[in-house]
Amino acid sequence: MAGLSFDLIALQLFAGLALGAIYVLFAIGLSLIFGMLTVVNFAHGAFYMVGAYVGLYLISIGGNFWICLVAVPIVIGLFGLAVERVLIRPLYGRGIDYPLLLTFGLSYVMVECVRIAFGKTGYPFDTPEVLQGAVDIGVGYFPLYRLFVIGATAVVLLALWLFLEKTSYGLIIRAGARDPQIVRVLGVDVSRVWLIVFGIGTAIAGFAGLLAAPLQGVIPEMGGTILAEAFVVTVVGGMGSIGGAVLAGLLVGVVVSMTSLFAPEMAKVSIFALMAIVLIVRPQGFFGRAGLMS
Amino acid sequence: MTNAAQSIKPHRATMGIWYEFATRHRASIVAVVILIFPLVMPFTALAVNILIYGLYALGFNLVFGYLGLLSFGHAALFGTGAYLCGIAIVHLGWPWYAAIAAGIAGGLLMALLIGVLAIRTRGIYFAMVTMALSQCVYYLFYQAVDLTGGENGLRGINVRTIDLFGLRIDFINPMIRYYVIAAFVIAAFFVMSRILASPFGAVIEAVRENEMRARASGYDVTLTRLLTFILSGGFCGLAGALQALHLSIVPIEILHYETSGLVVMIALLGGMGTFFGPMIGAAVFLVLENIVSVWTVHWQLIVGAIFIACVLFFPAGIWGTLIARGRR
């Protein structure tokens, strides 16, 4: 353990935050959709994966990464709107399991469609030139792109926070999460609010997929793994809580990155151990409402 | 069947006589169908698959259909059964019957471990937590290369003959293999029928129908859920063990979450919470998969689309829809 300096641990911590940023983006979409619609979107990983592939396609036809950052969330968000309107809306009021099952089937269809369009094998995804290289962050050199991922996540979070807390439409969304019945009585078309929330959630998932692509490349199966890990994030943070998703997402990222430094063979399993501890000590998660879980 | 099982089935008087007969002798009917099945089914290997996945779905349906909890982690139970059976044969040199027992024990134990954690959550969380935990089991088995073969799967589970009371049975012959496996599956169906007909089976359905009322009646809801999940693990463990014997290899994909999803599809397709549903679902699903995969390699697209249509238009599944028709 002689080589373990403070700097190395600090660098690993930053790497964990960058990984955690992807989890945060994935999980807030999941949490937003669940908090509003009480739908667990099993296709969230598929939206994430399609986001990465849409980015790949746009770049292959001559676009650049910055165009993708704007275009991918829009494309995936519009697709999400269509999915909610056509497939999920008929299932409201039919029991909480049905939307979950439907989105699970949808993830099969989406993954297979991508396989048909792009083939079964994965592609590398080039880091945009401006963001290549590393910068000195005081404790050592850190890849610039990972720093960008953390920054982009912070921007999305800030925008989402401003939208939810400072706009009148955000007020309707928050009220709808509390009590959709009352909101409906007050004359608001709740189903339209749900539609938009699903669109926002999937748009963020697509954005997360695009951000993750240069870090790990793109393959059709990339959504499945992160889905299970995002479930850990939502259970740890408390389902339906955006603050919980942010905190738990960063925590899970740091836990993965720290265990891969100290005990690499336990890196994959560590976050599930974290979830097990949270389930035993505090089943509703950090910020979960106690009533939801028991 | 005892009165407990019948009293919870509503509108008994309005049902046809055929339905009452089918309910009374449900396990025997399954046995007869399984015994004559290979005579009408040209592909024995497919028939064996249907048996094994039917059993897997039977165990899953106990939790999903009868207890009302959606588990997305049953691959862990199925896979642990398969791996323990394989490990018992390959590494420990146990005879086949002891290996099957090891598989069942593995399913029970894994269900206990997952159940203790997952049962603390409810509703939608149960699906998420079971899926996350089964993903954890996947990684654990993946990394234990010495024991499980890791990515390559566990190879060399060669059972050529089966000794039964001095009788040497040729396990390579596909027809004989079918009937050996069928014996276990039929036995499992009789046990399942007995469990569902017992007072405990009535409590399981009571918990699903109205948790508050079950608790007020003095039943321990949490314990019932845990016991049911463990029982389900036993059935899935047996199915896994038979799968290991049948394939002579345990691929790591058996623990993948798609194996969990597969059984959800089968149970929903056949009809959740019905006795015949899992077997019908397995037969229809696997035959369909076989036909579609001859026609295109992208069978997941077709299967996913059919599943979406099922959720939207036939949530009661094939057998559930038939029952509803019969009651009218």
Automatic annotation (TrEMBL), chain A:
It is found in: Cell membrane. It is a multi-pass membrane protein. The chain crosses the membrane at residues 6-26, 33-58, 64-88, 100-118, 144-164, 193-219, 231-257, 269-287. GO terms for cellular component: plasma membrane. Its main location: membrane. InterPro entries: ABC_transp_permease (IPR001851), BCAA_transport_permease (IPR052157). The keyword Repeat does not apply. One of its GO terms (molecular function) is transmembrane transporter activity. It holds the Pfam family BPD_transp_2. The keyword Transmembrane applies. One of its GO terms (biological process) is amino acid transport. CDD domains: TM_PBP1_LivH_like. Keywords: Amino-acid transport, Cell membrane, Membrane, Transmembrane, Transmembrane helix, Transport. Belongs to the binding-protein-dependent transport system permease family. LivHM subfamily. PANTHER family: ABC TRANSPORTER ATP-BINDING PROTEIN (PTHR11795:SF442), BRANCHED-CHAIN AMINO ACID TRANSPORT SYSTEM PERMEASE PROTEIN LIVH (PTHR11795). This is Branched-chain amino acid ABC transporter permease. It comes from Bradyrhizobium uaiense.
From TrEMBL, chain B:
It is a multi-pass membrane protein. It is found in: Cell membrane. CDD domains: TM_PBP1_LivM_like. InterPro entries: ABC_transp_permease, LivM-like. Keywords: Cell membrane, Membrane, Transmembrane, Transmembrane helix. One of its GO terms (cellular component) is plasma membrane. It holds the Pfam family BPD_transp_2. This is Branched-chain amino acid ABC transporter permease. It comes from Bradyrhizobium uaiense.
